[in-house]
Design a protein that fits this description.
The chain is of the alpha/beta class and 568 residues long. 52% of the residues lie in helices and 10% in strands. It contains 20 helices and 13 strands. A hairpin with a 3-residue loop joins strand 3 and strand 4. The longest helix is centred in the C-terminal third of the chain and has 24 residues. It is globular. The two termini are 36 Å apart.
Length: 568
Amino acid sequence: MIKDRIEQILTDGAKAAGYDEKLSCSFSAREGSDYQCNDCFALAKKFGKNPFELAEEIVNHIGYKPSFEFSVAKPAFINIKITDFAFELLGQVFLENERGGVKEHVKSELVILDYGGANVAKALHVGHLRPAIIGESLKRLYKLMGDKVISDVHLGDWGLQMGLTELQLYEDGKLDGYFGKGQNAPLTIDDLNEAYPKASARKQQDEDFRERAESWTLKIQRRESPYYEIYKVIRELSVNEIKQNYSKLGAEFDLWYGESTADPYCQDVINILNNEGLLRRSEGAMVVDVAKEDENSPMPPCLVQKSNGAVLYATTDIATILMRNIAYPNVDRIEYVTDGRQKMHFTQVFRVCKLSGISPEGQQLVHIVNGTMNGSDGKPFKTRSGDTIKLEDIIEMLSASAREKLRANGASEDDALKIGVAAMKFGDLINNVSKDYVFDLDKFMSFEGKTGPYLQYTVVRINSILKKTQDTPAGGIRIRNEEERNIMRAILRLNSSYEVCYREKSLNNLCSALYDLASAFSTFYNNHNVVNEQDPKVKAGYVALLQLVKKKLIQGLDVLAIEVPERM
Protein backbone atom coordinates (compact mmCIF):
# COMPACT_ATOMS: atom_id res chain seq x y z
CA MET A 1 0.00 0.00 0.00
CA ILE A 2 2.88 2.37 0.82
CA LYS A 3 4.65 1.54 -2.43
CA ASP A 4 1.45 2.19 -4.38
CA ARG A 5 1.03 5.57 -2.66
CA ILE A 6 4.64 6.61 -3.33
CA GLU A 7 4.40 5.60 -6.99
CA GLN A 8 1.21 7.64 -7.38
CA ILE A 9 2.90 10.72 -5.89
CA LEU A 10 5.92 10.25 -8.18
CA THR A 11 3.67 9.84 -11.22
CA ASP A 12 1.67 12.94 -10.29
CA GLY A 13 4.92 14.90 -9.83
CA ALA A 14 6.21 13.77 -13.21
CA LYS A 15 2.95 14.74 -14.86
CA ALA A 16 2.98 18.16 -13.21
CA ALA A 17 6.54 18.61 -14.54
CA GLY A 18 5.34 17.82 -18.06
CA TYR A 19 6.21 14.12 -18.25
CA ASP A 20 3.09 12.01 -18.62
CA GLU A 21 4.78 8.80 -17.52
CA LYS A 22 4.12 6.27 -14.76
CA LEU A 23 7.03 6.06 -12.32
CA SER A 24 7.94 3.14 -10.06
CA CYS A 25 9.95 2.67 -6.90
CA SER A 26 11.62 -0.12 -4.97
CA PHE A 27 13.12 -0.67 -1.54
CA SER A 28 16.37 1.19 -1.07
CA ALA A 29 19.62 0.03 0.50
CA ARG A 30 20.93 3.61 0.57
CA GLU A 31 21.45 5.20 3.98
CA GLY A 32 18.66 7.61 4.92
CA SER A 33 16.36 6.28 2.22
CA ASP A 34 13.51 3.76 2.50
CA TYR A 35 12.54 3.62 -1.19
CA GLN A 36 14.16 4.87 -4.37
CA CYS A 37 13.06 5.64 -7.92
CA ASN A 38 15.52 4.88 -10.74
CA ASP A 39 13.25 5.79 -13.67
CA CYS A 40 14.76 9.20 -14.38
CA PHE A 41 17.61 7.72 -16.42
CA ALA A 42 15.24 6.18 -18.99
CA LEU A 43 12.93 9.18 -18.83
CA ALA A 44 15.80 11.60 -19.51
CA LYS A 45 16.93 9.58 -22.51
CA LYS A 46 13.39 9.59 -23.93
CA PHE A 47 12.96 13.36 -23.56
CA GLY A 48 16.56 14.36 -24.28
CA LYS A 49 17.12 15.84 -20.80
CA ASN A 50 19.84 15.77 -18.18
CA PRO A 51 18.85 12.93 -15.78
CA PHE A 52 19.77 14.76 -12.56
CA GLU A 53 17.98 17.96 -13.60
CA LEU A 54 14.90 15.98 -14.67
CA ALA A 55 14.81 14.24 -11.26
CA GLU A 56 15.02 17.61 -9.53
CA GLU A 57 12.15 18.90 -11.68
CA ILE A 58 9.92 16.04 -10.61
CA VAL A 59 10.78 16.42 -6.91
CA ASN A 60 10.16 20.19 -7.05
CA HIS A 61 6.70 19.55 -8.49
CA ILE A 62 5.87 17.02 -5.77
CA GLY A 63 6.06 19.60 -3.01
CA TYR A 64 5.52 18.94 0.69
CA LYS A 65 4.07 15.59 1.79
CA PRO A 66 3.62 14.96 5.54
CA SER A 67 4.30 11.23 5.21
CA PHE A 68 7.32 11.26 2.88
CA GLU A 69 10.50 13.19 2.19
CA PHE A 70 11.65 13.25 -1.44
CA SER A 71 15.22 14.15 -2.41
CA VAL A 72 17.55 13.71 -5.37
CA ALA A 73 20.94 12.00 -5.24
CA LYS A 74 23.48 11.82 -8.04
CA PRO A 75 23.56 10.64 -10.66
CA ALA A 76 19.73 10.74 -10.84
CA PHE A 77 18.10 8.78 -8.02
CA ILE A 78 14.96 10.02 -6.29
CA ASN A 79 15.21 8.94 -2.66
CA ILE A 80 12.09 8.59 -0.54
CA LYS A 81 12.18 8.55 3.24
CA ILE A 82 9.11 7.66 5.27
CA THR A 83 8.64 10.16 8.10
CA ASP A 84 8.44 9.08 11.74
CA PHE A 85 4.89 10.39 11.76
CA ALA A 86 3.95 8.08 8.87
CA PHE A 87 5.70 5.10 10.45
CA GLU A 88 3.74 5.64 13.65
CA LEU A 89 0.45 5.72 11.77
CA LEU A 90 1.43 2.63 9.79
CA GLY A 91 2.48 0.74 12.90
CA GLN A 92 -0.84 1.44 14.58
CA VAL A 93 -2.78 0.37 11.49
CA PHE A 94 -0.77 -2.85 11.22
CA LEU A 95 -1.28 -3.57 14.91
CA GLU A 96 -5.04 -3.04 14.80
CA ASN A 97 -5.68 -4.53 11.34
CA GLU A 98 -6.46 -8.26 11.33
CA ARG A 99 -4.21 -8.87 8.31
CA GLY A 100 -1.37 -6.77 9.70
CA GLY A 101 -1.21 -4.70 6.53
CA VAL A 102 -0.75 -7.63 4.12
CA LYS A 103 -2.43 -6.68 0.85
CA GLU A 104 -5.07 -9.14 -0.37
CA HIS A 105 -5.50 -9.77 -4.10
CA VAL A 106 -8.37 -7.94 -5.76
CA LYS A 107 -9.43 -11.11 -7.61
CA SER A 108 -9.68 -14.30 -5.60
CA GLU A 109 -8.93 -17.49 -7.52
CA LEU A 110 -10.02 -21.06 -6.91
CA VAL A 111 -6.95 -23.27 -6.70
CA ILE A 112 -6.60 -27.03 -6.36
CA LEU A 113 -3.18 -27.74 -4.88
CA ASP A 114 -1.90 -31.29 -5.29
CA TYR A 115 1.03 -32.15 -3.03
CA GLY A 116 2.22 -34.93 -0.78
CA GLY A 117 1.87 -37.70 -3.33
CA ALA A 118 2.50 -40.59 -0.95
CA ASN A 119 2.22 -44.11 -2.30
CA VAL A 120 -0.04 -46.56 -0.51
CA ALA A 121 1.71 -49.74 0.71
CA LYS A 122 5.08 -47.94 0.70
CA ALA A 123 6.72 -46.27 3.69
CA LEU A 124 6.99 -42.49 3.43
CA HIS A 125 10.60 -41.53 2.81
CA VAL A 126 12.80 -38.44 2.69
CA GLY A 127 11.65 -37.69 -0.87
CA HIS A 128 8.16 -36.94 0.46
CA LEU A 129 9.45 -34.17 2.73
CA ARG A 130 9.85 -31.30 0.29
CA PRO A 131 6.48 -31.63 -1.54
CA ALA A 132 4.67 -31.75 1.81
CA ILE A 133 6.57 -28.80 3.32
CA ILE A 134 6.41 -26.63 0.19
CA GLY A 135 2.82 -27.51 -0.68
CA GLU A 136 1.50 -26.79 2.81
CA SER A 137 3.19 -23.38 2.89
CA LEU A 138 1.99 -22.45 -0.59
CA LYS A 139 -1.56 -23.38 0.43
CA ARG A 140 -1.39 -21.09 3.46
CA LEU A 141 0.20 -18.31 1.40
CA TYR A 142 -2.50 -18.50 -1.26
CA LYS A 143 -5.21 -18.34 1.39
CA LEU A 144 -3.57 -15.31 3.02
CA MET A 145 -3.53 -13.58 -0.36
CA GLY A 146 -7.27 -14.21 -0.78
CA ASP A 147 -7.46 -17.37 -2.88
CA LYS A 148 -9.76 -20.27 -2.09
CA VAL A 149 -7.60 -23.38 -1.94
CA ILE A 150 -8.55 -27.06 -1.99
CA SER A 151 -5.64 -29.29 -1.03
CA ASP A 152 -5.48 -32.89 -2.22
CA VAL A 153 -2.84 -35.41 -1.11
CA HIS A 154 -3.54 -37.47 -4.27
CA LEU A 155 -2.26 -40.83 -3.13
CA GLY A 156 -0.56 -43.28 -5.45
CA ASP A 157 -2.94 -46.15 -4.71
CA TRP A 158 -3.82 -47.74 -8.05
CA GLY A 159 -0.60 -48.78 -9.69
CA LEU A 160 1.72 -51.74 -9.93
CA GLN A 161 2.90 -51.38 -6.33
CA MET A 162 -0.53 -52.61 -5.19
CA GLY A 163 -0.28 -55.79 -7.26
CA LEU A 164 3.33 -56.33 -6.20
CA THR A 165 2.47 -55.92 -2.52
CA GLU A 166 -0.58 -58.19 -2.60
CA LEU A 167 1.21 -60.90 -4.56
CA GLN A 168 4.14 -60.87 -2.15
CA LEU A 169 1.81 -61.01 0.86
CA TYR A 170 0.00 -63.93 -0.79
CA GLU A 171 3.21 -65.86 -1.37
CA ASP A 172 4.28 -65.16 2.21
CA GLY A 173 1.06 -66.80 3.42
CA LYS A 174 -0.43 -63.56 4.79
CA LEU A 175 -3.60 -63.75 2.67
CA ASP A 176 -4.54 -67.44 2.96
CA GLY A 177 -7.93 -66.73 4.49
CA TYR A 178 -9.03 -64.70 1.45
CA PHE A 179 -8.43 -67.74 -0.78
CA GLY A 180 -10.02 -70.39 1.47
CA LYS A 181 -6.76 -71.69 2.90
CA GLY A 182 -7.31 -70.95 6.57
CA GLN A 183 -7.57 -67.88 8.77
CA ASN A 184 -6.06 -64.46 8.17
CA ALA A 185 -3.96 -62.77 10.81
CA PRO A 186 -4.58 -58.99 10.81
CA LEU A 187 -2.23 -57.22 8.42
CA THR A 188 0.14 -54.68 9.95
CA ILE A 189 2.23 -51.77 8.71
CA ASP A 190 5.29 -53.92 9.32
CA ASP A 191 3.85 -56.51 6.93
CA LEU A 192 3.50 -53.86 4.22
CA ASN A 193 6.92 -52.35 4.89
CA GLU A 194 8.43 -55.80 4.49
CA ALA A 195 6.37 -56.97 1.50
CA TYR A 196 6.76 -54.08 -0.93
CA PRO A 197 10.59 -53.74 -0.84
CA LYS A 198 10.89 -57.51 -1.24
CA ALA A 199 8.47 -57.52 -4.19
CA SER A 200 10.07 -54.46 -5.78
CA ALA A 201 13.48 -56.14 -5.72
CA ARG A 202 12.03 -59.41 -7.11
CA LYS A 203 10.41 -57.75 -10.11
CA GLN A 204 13.82 -56.53 -11.29
CA GLN A 205 15.16 -60.10 -11.45
CA ASP A 206 12.07 -62.28 -11.99
CA GLU A 207 10.12 -61.49 -15.17
CA ASP A 208 7.48 -64.10 -14.35
CA PHE A 209 6.85 -62.50 -10.95
CA ARG A 210 6.50 -59.09 -12.57
CA GLU A 211 4.00 -60.37 -15.13
CA ARG A 212 1.94 -62.06 -12.41
CA ALA A 213 2.01 -58.80 -10.40
CA GLU A 214 0.76 -56.88 -13.44
CA SER A 215 -2.07 -59.39 -13.85
CA TRP A 216 -2.85 -59.06 -10.13
CA THR A 217 -2.91 -55.27 -10.48
CA LEU A 218 -5.40 -55.50 -13.34
CA LYS A 219 -7.70 -57.65 -11.17
CA ILE A 220 -7.57 -54.99 -8.45
CA GLN A 221 -8.38 -52.27 -11.00
CA ARG A 222 -11.32 -54.36 -12.25
CA ARG A 223 -12.46 -54.68 -8.63
CA GLU A 224 -12.44 -58.46 -8.73
CA SER A 225 -12.89 -60.41 -5.49
CA PRO A 226 -10.97 -61.01 -3.26
CA TYR A 227 -8.21 -58.84 -4.78
CA TYR A 228 -10.16 -55.60 -4.36
CA GLU A 229 -11.21 -56.43 -0.78
CA ILE A 230 -7.56 -57.03 0.13
CA TYR A 231 -6.68 -53.75 -1.58
CA LYS A 232 -9.15 -51.81 0.59
CA VAL A 233 -7.65 -53.27 3.78
CA ILE A 234 -4.13 -52.37 2.68
CA ARG A 235 -5.19 -48.86 1.64
CA GLU A 236 -6.90 -48.08 4.95
CA LEU A 237 -3.97 -49.41 6.96
CA SER A 238 -1.45 -47.44 4.90
CA VAL A 239 -3.44 -44.19 4.80
CA ASN A 240 -3.80 -44.13 8.59
CA GLU A 241 -0.01 -44.37 8.87
CA ILE A 242 0.51 -41.70 6.20
CA LYS A 243 -1.88 -39.34 8.00
CA GLN A 244 0.07 -39.65 11.25
CA ASN A 245 3.38 -38.80 9.58
CA TYR A 246 2.00 -35.88 7.58
CA SER A 247 0.33 -34.60 10.76
CA LYS A 248 3.73 -34.41 12.47
CA LEU A 249 4.87 -32.18 9.61
CA GLY A 250 1.80 -29.97 10.01
CA ALA A 251 0.56 -30.92 6.54
CA GLU A 252 -3.23 -30.91 6.39
CA PHE A 253 -5.35 -31.95 3.39
CA ASP A 254 -8.93 -31.21 2.46
CA LEU A 255 -9.12 -34.29 0.23
CA TRP A 256 -7.59 -37.71 0.73
CA TYR A 257 -8.23 -38.80 -2.82
CA GLY A 258 -5.99 -40.99 -4.91
CA GLU A 259 -5.61 -42.53 -8.32
CA SER A 260 -8.38 -44.96 -7.38
CA THR A 261 -10.81 -42.06 -6.88
CA ALA A 262 -10.22 -40.97 -10.46
CA ASP A 263 -10.38 -44.48 -11.91
CA PRO A 264 -14.14 -44.33 -12.72
CA TYR A 265 -13.36 -41.37 -15.01
CA CYS A 266 -10.65 -43.20 -16.98
CA GLN A 267 -13.06 -44.64 -19.55
CA ASP A 268 -14.58 -41.18 -19.99
CA VAL A 269 -11.07 -39.91 -20.75
CA ILE A 270 -10.55 -42.63 -23.38
CA ASN A 271 -13.93 -41.76 -24.95
CA ILE A 272 -13.16 -38.03 -25.03
CA LEU A 273 -9.74 -38.58 -26.57
CA ASN A 274 -11.25 -40.93 -29.15
CA ASN A 275 -14.06 -38.50 -30.02
CA GLU A 276 -11.53 -35.69 -30.45
CA GLY A 277 -9.52 -37.85 -32.85
CA LEU A 278 -6.46 -37.77 -30.60
CA LEU A 279 -6.00 -41.50 -30.00
CA ARG A 280 -3.84 -43.74 -32.14
CA ARG A 281 -2.76 -47.34 -31.69
CA SER A 282 0.92 -48.09 -31.17
CA GLU A 283 2.07 -51.70 -30.71
CA GLY A 284 -1.36 -52.59 -29.33
CA ALA A 285 -1.44 -49.69 -26.84
CA MET A 286 -3.34 -46.40 -27.16
CA VAL A 287 -1.31 -43.16 -27.26
CA VAL A 288 -1.77 -39.42 -27.83
CA ASP A 289 0.81 -37.44 -29.77
CA VAL A 290 1.80 -34.39 -27.72
CA ALA A 291 5.00 -33.23 -29.44
CA LYS A 292 5.08 -29.70 -30.83
CA GLU A 293 6.62 -28.83 -34.19
CA ASP A 294 8.87 -26.11 -32.81
CA GLU A 295 10.45 -28.30 -30.09
CA ASN A 296 14.18 -28.99 -30.29
CA SER A 297 13.75 -32.32 -28.51
CA PRO A 298 10.60 -34.10 -29.75
CA MET A 299 8.45 -35.35 -26.90
CA PRO A 300 7.34 -39.00 -27.00
CA PRO A 301 3.60 -39.73 -27.21
CA CYS A 302 1.58 -40.02 -24.01
CA LEU A 303 0.63 -43.64 -23.29
CA VAL A 304 -2.93 -43.77 -21.93
CA GLN A 305 -3.95 -47.43 -22.21
CA LYS A 306 -1.92 -50.64 -22.29
CA SER A 307 -2.57 -53.38 -24.82
CA ASN A 308 -4.30 -55.43 -22.09
CA GLY A 309 -6.70 -52.57 -21.38
CA ALA A 310 -5.03 -51.44 -18.14
CA VAL A 311 -4.75 -47.73 -17.42
CA LEU A 312 -1.53 -45.99 -16.52
CA TYR A 313 -0.23 -43.23 -14.26
CA ALA A 314 -0.82 -40.65 -17.00
CA THR A 315 -4.39 -41.88 -17.55
CA THR A 316 -5.35 -41.50 -13.90
CA ASP A 317 -3.78 -38.03 -13.76
CA ILE A 318 -5.74 -36.93 -16.84
CA ALA A 319 -8.86 -38.48 -15.30
CA THR A 320 -8.15 -36.62 -12.07
CA ILE A 321 -8.16 -33.28 -13.91
CA LEU A 322 -11.44 -34.28 -15.58
CA MET A 323 -12.90 -35.27 -12.20
CA ARG A 324 -11.77 -32.00 -10.59
CA ASN A 325 -13.29 -29.88 -13.35
CA ILE A 326 -16.58 -31.72 -13.00
CA ALA A 327 -16.62 -31.35 -9.20
CA TYR A 328 -15.35 -27.72 -9.26
CA PRO A 329 -16.44 -26.16 -12.59
CA ASN A 330 -14.69 -22.82 -12.04
CA VAL A 331 -11.18 -23.87 -11.04
CA ASP A 332 -8.67 -21.21 -12.06
CA ARG A 333 -5.49 -23.16 -11.33
CA ILE A 334 -4.51 -26.76 -10.68
CA GLU A 335 -1.00 -26.95 -9.26
CA TYR A 336 1.23 -29.92 -8.49
CA VAL A 337 4.31 -29.98 -6.25
CA THR A 338 6.73 -32.81 -7.11
CA ASP A 339 10.39 -33.27 -7.90
CA GLY A 340 11.86 -32.79 -11.35
CA ARG A 341 11.71 -36.45 -12.35
CA GLN A 342 8.04 -35.97 -13.21
CA LYS A 343 8.58 -32.96 -15.45
CA MET A 344 7.98 -34.81 -18.74
CA HIS A 345 5.04 -36.71 -17.25
CA PHE A 346 3.18 -33.53 -16.33
CA THR A 347 4.07 -31.82 -19.60
CA GLN A 348 2.46 -34.74 -21.44
CA VAL A 349 -0.59 -34.85 -19.15
CA PHE A 350 -1.16 -31.08 -19.39
CA ARG A 351 -0.89 -31.13 -23.18
CA VAL A 352 -3.39 -33.99 -23.47
CA CYS A 353 -5.81 -32.08 -21.23
CA LYS A 354 -5.48 -28.90 -23.30
CA LEU A 355 -5.69 -30.67 -26.69
CA SER A 356 -8.85 -32.54 -25.62
CA GLY A 357 -10.56 -29.67 -23.79
CA ILE A 358 -10.54 -31.62 -20.53
CA SER A 359 -8.83 -28.54 -19.12
CA PRO A 360 -10.81 -25.49 -20.31
CA GLU A 361 -9.23 -22.48 -21.95
CA GLY A 362 -7.92 -20.04 -19.37
CA GLN A 363 -7.32 -22.65 -16.70
CA GLN A 364 -3.72 -22.84 -15.57
CA LEU A 365 -2.08 -26.24 -15.12
CA VAL A 366 1.14 -25.73 -13.19
CA HIS A 367 3.93 -28.09 -12.20
CA ILE A 368 6.01 -26.65 -9.34
CA VAL A 369 9.32 -28.52 -9.45
CA ASN A 370 11.16 -28.91 -6.17
CA GLY A 371 14.86 -29.66 -5.89
CA THR A 372 16.24 -32.51 -3.82
CA MET A 373 17.46 -32.62 -0.23
CA ASN A 374 21.07 -33.77 -0.34
CA GLY A 375 23.63 -35.02 2.14
CA SER A 376 27.01 -33.39 2.77
CA ASP A 377 28.36 -35.27 -0.27
CA GLY A 378 25.97 -33.37 -2.53
CA LYS A 379 23.99 -36.51 -3.37
CA PRO A 380 20.36 -37.29 -2.37
CA PHE A 381 20.16 -37.79 1.40
CA LYS A 382 20.38 -41.50 2.29
CA THR A 383 21.54 -43.81 5.07
CA ARG A 384 25.20 -44.84 5.32
CA SER A 385 24.33 -48.13 3.66
CA GLY A 386 22.79 -46.24 0.71
CA ASP A 387 19.15 -46.94 1.58
CA THR A 388 16.48 -44.25 1.29
CA ILE A 389 15.72 -42.78 4.74
CA LYS A 390 12.18 -43.15 6.03
CA LEU A 391 10.28 -39.98 6.84
CA GLU A 392 9.54 -41.14 10.38
CA ASP A 393 13.30 -41.61 10.94
CA ILE A 394 13.97 -38.03 9.79
CA ILE A 395 11.29 -36.72 12.15
CA GLU A 396 12.77 -38.69 15.06
CA MET A 397 16.26 -37.44 14.18
CA LEU A 398 15.02 -33.83 14.30
CA SER A 399 13.12 -34.37 17.55
CA ALA A 400 16.12 -36.05 19.21
CA SER A 401 18.38 -33.16 18.25
CA ALA A 402 15.86 -30.65 19.61
CA ARG A 403 15.54 -32.61 22.87
CA GLU A 404 19.32 -32.49 23.27
CA LYS A 405 19.35 -28.72 22.73
CA LEU A 406 16.53 -28.13 25.18
CA ARG A 407 18.17 -30.37 27.76
CA ALA A 408 21.40 -28.38 27.45
CA ASN A 409 19.43 -25.16 28.01
CA GLY A 410 17.62 -26.58 31.02
CA ALA A 411 14.28 -26.21 29.24
CA SER A 412 11.34 -28.59 28.96
CA GLU A 413 11.62 -31.20 26.21
CA ASP A 414 7.85 -31.28 25.59
CA ASP A 415 8.07 -29.14 22.45
CA ALA A 416 10.99 -30.97 20.83
CA LEU A 417 8.86 -32.07 17.86
CA LYS A 418 7.74 -28.47 17.15
CA ILE A 419 11.31 -27.21 17.26
CA GLY A 420 12.75 -30.07 15.22
CA VAL A 421 10.09 -29.74 12.51
CA ALA A 422 10.56 -25.94 12.46
CA ALA A 423 14.28 -26.45 11.90
CA MET A 424 13.58 -28.79 8.99
CA LYS A 425 10.94 -26.57 7.39
CA PHE A 426 12.88 -23.33 7.60
CA GLY A 427 16.06 -25.04 6.42
CA ASP A 428 14.10 -26.21 3.39
CA LEU A 429 12.03 -23.12 2.62
CA ILE A 430 14.89 -20.59 2.96
CA ASN A 431 16.09 -22.08 -0.35
CA ASN A 432 14.44 -21.42 -3.67
CA VAL A 433 11.89 -24.18 -4.21
CA SER A 434 13.57 -25.41 -7.42
CA LYS A 435 17.08 -25.63 -5.95
CA ASP A 436 18.77 -28.59 -4.31
CA TYR A 437 20.12 -28.02 -0.81
CA VAL A 438 22.26 -29.78 1.78
CA PHE A 439 20.63 -31.20 4.91
CA ASP A 440 22.77 -29.80 7.74
CA LEU A 441 21.17 -30.78 11.05
CA ASP A 442 23.54 -28.77 13.28
CA LYS A 443 23.04 -25.62 11.20
CA PHE A 444 19.25 -26.03 10.97
CA MET A 445 18.91 -26.63 14.71
CA SER A 446 20.88 -23.58 15.87
CA PHE A 447 19.01 -21.13 18.12
CA GLU A 448 21.01 -18.33 16.49
CA GLY A 449 21.26 -17.15 12.89
CA LYS A 450 18.90 -17.69 10.00
CA THR A 451 17.03 -20.73 11.34
CA GLY A 452 13.54 -21.83 12.36
CA PRO A 453 14.43 -22.24 16.05
CA TYR A 454 15.87 -18.69 16.11
CA LEU A 455 12.54 -17.30 14.91
CA GLN A 456 10.65 -19.44 17.42
CA TYR A 457 12.99 -18.28 20.19
CA THR A 458 12.43 -14.63 19.21
CA VAL A 459 8.67 -15.02 19.69
CA VAL A 460 9.21 -16.89 22.97
CA ARG A 461 11.42 -14.06 24.20
CA ILE A 462 8.83 -11.43 23.20
CA ASN A 463 6.15 -13.42 25.05
CA SER A 464 8.36 -13.43 28.14
CA ILE A 465 8.80 -9.64 28.00
CA LEU A 466 5.09 -9.05 27.43
CA LYS A 467 4.29 -11.27 30.39
CA LYS A 468 6.60 -9.22 32.59
CA THR A 469 5.02 -5.97 31.36
CA GLN A 470 1.41 -7.16 31.39
CA ASP A 471 0.49 -4.41 33.86
CA THR A 472 1.64 -1.79 31.33
CA PRO A 473 -1.17 -1.00 28.88
CA ALA A 474 0.06 -0.74 25.29
CA GLY A 475 0.23 2.81 24.03
CA GLY A 476 0.40 4.01 20.46
CA ILE A 477 3.32 3.05 18.24
CA ARG A 478 6.01 5.69 18.63
CA ILE A 479 9.22 6.07 16.60
CA ARG A 480 11.95 7.59 18.76
CA ASN A 481 15.12 5.95 17.50
CA GLU A 482 16.75 4.22 14.54
CA GLU A 483 16.15 0.74 15.99
CA GLU A 484 12.39 1.35 15.93
CA ARG A 485 12.62 2.70 12.37
CA ASN A 486 14.50 -0.42 11.33
CA ILE A 487 11.76 -2.60 12.78
CA MET A 488 9.15 -0.73 10.75
CA ARG A 489 11.29 -0.99 7.60
CA ALA A 490 11.58 -4.74 8.19
CA ILE A 491 7.80 -5.04 8.57
CA LEU A 492 7.24 -3.22 5.27
CA ARG A 493 9.64 -5.58 3.53
CA LEU A 494 7.97 -8.54 5.22
CA ASN A 495 4.54 -7.46 4.02
CA SER A 496 5.82 -7.05 0.46
CA SER A 497 7.52 -10.46 0.53
CA TYR A 498 4.17 -12.26 0.41
CA GLU A 499 3.45 -10.92 -3.07
CA VAL A 500 6.93 -11.91 -4.25
CA CYS A 501 6.47 -15.44 -2.86
CA TYR A 502 3.05 -15.71 -4.48
CA ARG A 503 4.44 -14.68 -7.85
CA GLU A 504 7.53 -16.91 -7.67
CA LYS A 505 5.78 -19.86 -5.95
CA SER A 506 8.66 -20.10 -3.51
CA LEU A 507 8.84 -19.13 0.19
CA ASN A 508 12.51 -18.11 0.43
CA ASN A 509 11.76 -14.37 0.28
CA LEU A 510 9.37 -14.66 3.24
CA CYS A 511 11.93 -16.67 5.24
CA SER A 512 14.57 -13.98 4.73
CA ALA A 513 12.13 -11.19 5.61
CA LEU A 514 11.11 -12.95 8.84
CA TYR A 515 14.75 -13.32 9.83
CA ASP A 516 15.40 -9.63 9.08
CA LEU A 517 12.51 -8.60 11.34
CA ALA A 518 13.69 -10.91 14.13
CA SER A 519 17.20 -9.51 13.73
CA ALA A 520 15.92 -5.91 13.86
CA PHE A 521 14.00 -6.74 17.03
CA SER A 522 17.09 -8.33 18.58
CA THR A 523 19.09 -5.14 18.02
CA PHE A 524 16.29 -3.09 19.57
CA TYR A 525 16.06 -5.49 22.52
CA ASN A 526 19.81 -5.30 23.16
CA ASN A 527 19.78 -1.48 23.20
CA HIS A 528 16.55 -0.80 25.09
CA ASN A 529 15.47 -2.30 28.40
CA VAL A 530 11.74 -2.60 27.96
CA VAL A 531 10.97 -4.16 31.34
CA ASN A 532 12.89 -1.56 33.35
CA GLU A 533 12.00 1.52 31.29
CA GLN A 534 11.03 4.28 33.74
CA ASP A 535 9.08 6.59 31.43
CA PRO A 536 5.49 5.20 31.34
CA LYS A 537 4.76 6.65 27.87
CA VAL A 538 7.97 5.29 26.38
CA LYS A 539 7.36 1.90 27.98
CA ALA A 540 3.78 1.79 26.66
CA GLY A 541 5.11 2.52 23.17
CA TYR A 542 7.67 -0.27 23.51
CA VAL A 543 4.96 -2.72 24.55
CA ALA A 544 2.86 -1.81 21.50
CA LEU A 545 5.88 -2.26 19.23
CA LEU A 546 6.59 -5.69 20.72
CA GLN A 547 2.98 -6.72 20.20
CA LEU A 548 3.28 -5.69 16.55
CA VAL A 549 6.54 -7.59 16.01
CA LYS A 550 5.06 -10.69 17.62
CA LYS A 551 1.95 -10.44 15.46
CA LYS A 552 3.96 -10.16 12.25
CA LEU A 553 6.34 -13.00 13.15
CA ILE A 554 3.51 -15.35 14.08
CA GLN A 555 1.63 -14.48 10.89
CA GLY A 556 4.68 -15.35 8.78
CA LEU A 557 5.50 -18.48 10.74
CA ASP A 558 1.92 -19.65 10.32
CA VAL A 559 2.32 -19.39 6.53
CA LEU A 560 5.41 -21.59 6.90
CA ALA A 561 3.31 -23.96 9.08
CA ILE A 562 5.73 -23.44 11.97
CA GLU A 563 4.29 -23.52 15.49
CA VAL A 564 5.77 -21.53 18.39
CA PRO A 565 6.46 -23.49 21.61
CA GLU A 566 5.73 -22.14 25.08
CA ARG A 567 9.36 -22.23 26.22
CA MET A 568 12.80 -22.80 24.72
